[in-house]
Amino acid sequence: MLAQLPPVLRDLKLPLRLQLWDGKEIDLGPNPTVTMTVKDPSAVSLLNRPSLGTLGTAYVEGRVELTGPILEVIRVGDALSEALVGDDDDSTPLRQSHDKATDAAAISYHYDLSNDFYALWLDREMVYSCAYFPTGTEDLDSAQQAKLHHLCRKLRLKPGEYLLDVGCGWGGLARFAAREYGVRVFGITLSREQLALGRERVEADGLQGQVELELLDYRDLPQDGRFDKVVSVGMLEHVGHANMPIYCQRLFGAVRAGGLVMNHGITSRHPDGRPVGRGAGEFIDRYVFPNGELPHLATMVTELSLAGMEVVDVESLRLHYARTLEFWSANLEANLGKAAKLVPEQALRIWRLYLAGCSHAFQKGWINLHQILATKPRADGSHELPWSRADLYVR
């Protein structure tokens, strides 16, 4: 079987050891750091054209085993794929259906996996979105607290204001904004597991009078401008290209004139919104985020503008998300035994690849993360923002 391997494999000098089901081994370079054990003879053919998608699927299905530090597994796998497949960046843009039932099912698939599983690797507030590292030296808990402050400062939250939190998750941001900035918060999610734990934490913090969390689709948001500010974190990825106009219109209708809207979400590298190449995007759509689609920054700016908002500030946190995911991956790797008791084996394989792979993807610039601040101008064109950003960085 070793003779069937593409000759170019021997020329790559990768720190990779191939091990076959019969115990035979070949080192593709000196001092291997990663071992790929081929358990299924038919999987040998994958090495002729090892896309990221086919390699990931083979691991998830148990046809191959990958041993070694998980970030190194991803790095070596990417190098192997790039050498034999090339820098395939011509994937077709996804255009998927996003009705309420489909979106609810996709959210449930991803977020209702297990609250205890997520708690193993997230920060203590269970903030499942990109953290913010003011100096780059912060630990995960500190960086997530810094992110929450960063969002609240950008929104210029003031005591007594009414904040809409779209895609509120386990309520970390909602409770933080209520506690630290004195606002009332209405948060919505489509995950029943998140809602249940979020409400428990609101009650435990004694914030029932300030924070209300509901199971609600963004398309059903009130359109009477009752909210002073709107924040949407990690929701953008689930909206879909076709529904981006209605998503932006719903945010516009929910906020009062003069109010602010903050959208924090993952964005595509490509202006046409195509997924990550070499099969990685298809792998994520199949196993991690069903029906997920990433718009380009330019698309978001366009749709927010067409909805009637004025984009006033944009910040990329791409490297911040790479580091966040590195923390998450390390936490999961340190708790594999506990995780194995909470989720099925295949799910654990998916999440190990997903967290480490996404850290690599953000580090390489395959995807980005943008915070986009917009305002709903008053009739005379005015808004409430200060003349500079200086207030954002006052401690």
From TrEMBL:
<protein>
    <submittedName>
        <fullName>C17 cyclopropane fatty acid synthase CfaB</fullName>
    </submittedName>
</protein>
<feature type="domain" description="DUF7884">
    <location>
        <begin position="13"/>
        <end position="76"/>
    </location>
</feature>
<keyword id="KW-0443">Lipid metabolism</keyword>
<keyword id="KW-0489">Methyltransferase</keyword>
<dbReference type="InterPro" id="IPR029063">
    <property type="entry name" value="SAM-dependent_MTases_sf"/>
</dbReference>
<dbReference type="Pfam" id="PF02353">
    <property type="entry name" value="CMAS"/>
</dbReference>
<comment type="similarity">
    <text>Belongs to the CFA/CMAS family.</text>
</comment>
<keyword id="KW-0808">Transferase</keyword>
<dbReference type="InterPro" id="IPR048027">
    <property type="entry name" value="CfaB-like"/>
</dbReference>
<dbReference type="Pfam" id="PF25371">
    <property type="entry name" value="DUF7884"/>
</dbReference>
<dbReference type="InterPro" id="IPR003333">
    <property type="entry name" value="CMAS"/>
</dbReference>
<dbReference type="InterPro" id="IPR057206">
    <property type="entry name" value="DUF7884"/>
</dbReference>
<dbReference type="InterPro" id="IPR050723">
    <property type="entry name" value="CFA/CMAS"/>
</dbReference>
<keyword id="KW-0949">S-adenosyl-L-methionine</keyword>
